[in-house]
Design a protein that fits this description.
15% strand; 8 helices; Rossmann fold; alpha/beta; seven-stranded parallel beta sheet
Length: 250
């Protein structure tokens, strides 16, 4: 398919590396200008330079999506620079622990939920208000197959299951404003975030045993799916969860 995002402005969180970086670059390749958000300015600047080398505009903004004041600043800077936001990709997430559900404490729970679910919702709300003013837009929430089938990251799984339901709520309530909302759920992907899993030989073997396509995903696999969801080619799709996992959840 000839997919074009020309004339669009995309805001991507967690854009300094991994899946977020790949999505930001793929959207730029498809013609979008990109607002990049993450907590580390130096890493964001590198991605911004890559996007500018593609002939597109890039605005790096340091932001912690778990903080409402950072969300407000991020959206304000995006509006100031571009006047609108057509696409939001909620990719920022955390999982600071591999503790079991019987051991995990309140502090870790709050850290995971604050960024993965609360921050995602309130950034979506802020951007949806901008989209509403301009006739609509597209929101893509990056979830995980861990939100569909519980795995070895229990509270991360709970947070991502919440993201899946948040997508449905947003899609149902914001369709009247011309806003489509979908979830993209990656399987095991070769990123620094998940290296503790795929980099462990024993865990890697389990992953391969469960994956019919017999490989883990590359960030570009998720980026191409995200561009499809952001484009007019998916114009009648909303409230859905696109699982990109090589068949692992079959």
């Amino acid at each position: 398919m000839d997919i074009s995002l020309k004339g669009k402005v995309a805001l991507v969180t967690g854009a300094s590396r991994g899946i977020g970086r790949a999505i930001a670059l793929e959207m730029a390749k498809s013609g979008a200008d990109v607002v990049l958000a993450s907590r580390k300015a130096a890493d964001l600047e590198k991605v911004a330079d890559e996007i500018k080398a593609l002939g597109r505009k890039a605005l790096p903004v340091t932001a912690h999506i778990g903080r409402t004041e950072d969300i407000a600043n991020l959206v304000a800077k995006a509006k100031e620079e571009f006047g609108r936001i057509n696409i939001l990709v909620n990719n920022a997430a955390t999982n600071p622990t591999m503790e079991s559900a019987i051991d995990i404490g309140e502090r870790a729970w709050d850290s995971i939920m604050n960024l993965n679910l609360k921050g995602l919702f309130f950034l979506s709300q802020a951007v949806a208000r901008v989209m509403k003013e301009h006739g609509g837009g597209v929101i893509i929430n990056i979830s995980s197959i861990a939100g569909v089938t519980p795995d070895i990251l229990p509270i991360y799984s709970v947070s991502k299951a919440g993201v899946n339901m948040a997508t449905k709520v947003m899609a149902q309530q914001w369709a009247v404003y011309g806003i489509r909302v979908n979830t993209l759920s990656p399987g095991q992907t070769r990123t620094q975030f998940s290296q503790a899993l795929w980099g462990n030989p024993d865990i890697y073997k389990v992953i391969m045993d469960r994956t019919p396509l017999k490989r883990i995903a590359e960030p570009e696999d998720m980026a191409q799916a995200a561009v499809f969801l952001a484009s007019d080619k998916s114009g009648f799709i909303t409230g859905q969860n696109l699982i990109v996992d090589g068949g692992m959840t079959i």
